[in-house]
Amino acid sequence: MNNVVLNHSPLYVALLMLMVIGLAGWVSKLRGEKKIFLGDGGDKELQIAIRRHGNALEHAVVLSVLAIVLDAIHKPGALLDLRDVNWRVAGNLVLWVAIAARALHALFAFKSVKLHPIAAALTYFAEIALCAIVLVIYFFY
Fold this sequence. Notes:
By secondary structure, this protein is an all-alpha fold. It has one domain: Membrane associated eicosanoid/glutathione metabolism-like domain (Four Helix Bundle (Hemerythrin (Met), subunit A)), CATH 1.20.120.550. The chain has 4 helices and no strands. Helix 1 (about 10-35) packs antiparallel against helix 2 (about 45-70) and helix 3 (about 85-110) runs antiparallel to helix 4.
């Protein structure tokens, strides 16, 4: 059995989870202030906070798994000579874009009609790009 060395994914996972934990803390703070301890009580501000937290968690899981897979995937030999492109570096850059997109999405959700969809689209782009990079590494390296 090969030992898996995780180089960069622990950093990405920690940053994503800190964002999720921060948003969860915000939800808890609002619940305490508004004395709403179950559900959202019909409170619009709490509904938005709960949705932001849920949305962040949904994407953090996908991005965390992709980060770990990107770190862990290793296949000796190559079917194609793709040495001109460093796919792991590309994957790490895409992960930084994804983290920035998630932060922007959390900050601008429901506040900036212009930036919110851009951040959401950037997140989906990053997730699809990471899947493509993982597949390239898997099949061609």
